[in-house]
Amino acid sequence: xxxxxxxxxxxxxxxxxxxxxxxxxxxxxxxxxxxxxxxxxxxxxxxxxxxxxxxxxxxxxxxxxxxxxxxxxxxxxxxxxxxxxxxxxxxxxxxxxxxxxxxxxxxxxxxxxxxxxxxxxxxxxxxxxxxxxxxxxxxxxxxxxxxxxxxxxxxxxx
Length: 158
Description:
The chain is α/β, with parallel strands linked by helices and 158 residues long. Helices cover 32% and strands 34% of the residues. A hairpin with a 4-residue loop joins β4 and β5 (50-57). The model has no long low-confidence stretch (mean pLDDT 85).
């Protein structure tokens, strides 16, 4: 299905459009303003933390964009704890280098300011992403269920 959108943009703006496979990115003045994502996400504000649900298909580009999206939402909601639910995500046996890149992106974006628990399918947990992020100063734990992730997140000693 082709979708065509025409927008009048003043010449003072630099526009770049990139397409690769099913991905589309539109930048104005080097700022990403639109992309089609393979994964879907939503936020829910809980009493003590922000709940971030990811579904659909794993995609490295999507996951590299999530740290900024999450940081902005945490700042908006004034929370410093995050529980990510990726249990309904497909393609969670991610390549080692993806885990490394995403761990670095999390550490570079959050530092130790946001404590993050991730519920990830147990069959695909190998702790490499967690090790990368923690070794760079982040507070992250990857677990195989929501209850354990929430318990770790809310424990003030972890």
